[in-house]
Amino acid sequence: MSNPSLTSISEVVKNASRLVALTSRISPSFPLSRLCIKVAATWEGLQACRQLTSQGIQTLATTVFTLEQAILAGECGCMYISPFVHELKAVFDENYDDGGANLALCLEAQQYYEHYSYSTRVKAAALLSVAEAKGLAGVAAITIPPDLLRTLASTEVLGQDIDELSLFTNGKPSKGNELERRTYMDDETSWREAFSKAYDGKGSRLTGEAIDAFKEYQIKGEQLMLEKEKR
């Protein structure tokens, strides 16, 4: 992941390019077609993805909580987006209740991409249960934590279960505002306004909280590496 503490377009582009260069240096035979740099889905992050895409560097827009982020990510050429179906806090704190999963965002984003022929794919993240995994059957990709993956491996799943539970089988096609074509790529003001209003402002708040959490992990990782160097 590109350093989540970086806040300017140029900084994110430079950091992502450095990760690509390090990959080639450490493992020259590693095919860069398999490398995809995760970037936080802020205005600056997604505009950085736009530049990186033009340089042939594949990107994944993470911390996606709104359709507005998904639309801009598609316009900027991201290979994937990762909509978080739960708040990040709910993933790490089993006692925290975030009010339930937002599976519908994955369906809306995928329908939007398919309708307007974007190549960006939806890679759902932050799942907490087998039921949610079944509900997302049909999405392009899913990030599944180890514990949930083990539970899925030992769970009998019938085709009928998937047909009954999957939003992608039974979900209604998006209509009206959801599938109305919008363009934000060169209109920062309109995007920021729409993003700030999405889900009554909740999307913007959750994105900020998730990025803050990733910043903490970045700092802890850097501290760990420094400690190892001193030994």
Q: Could you outline the blueprint of secondary structure elements for this entry?
A:
Blueprint: H1 9-26, E1 36-40, H2 43-54, E2 58-64, H3 67-75, E3 80-83, H4 88-92, H5 104-115, E4 121-124, H6 130-135, E5 141-142, H7 146-153, H8 159-165, H9 167-170, H10 188-197, H11 202-230
Parallel strand pairs: 1-2, 2-3, 3-4, 4-5
General description of the model:
The protein has helices at residues 9-26, 43-54, 67-75, 88-92, 104-115, 130-135, 146-153, 159-165, 167-170, 188-197, 202-230, and strands spanning 36-40, 58-64, 80-83, 121-124, 141-142. The protein is an alpha/beta fold. It has a 5-stranded parallel beta sheet with strand order 1-2-3-4-5. Helix 2 (43-54) links the parallel strand 1 and strand 2. The radius of gyration is 18 Å and the shape is globular.
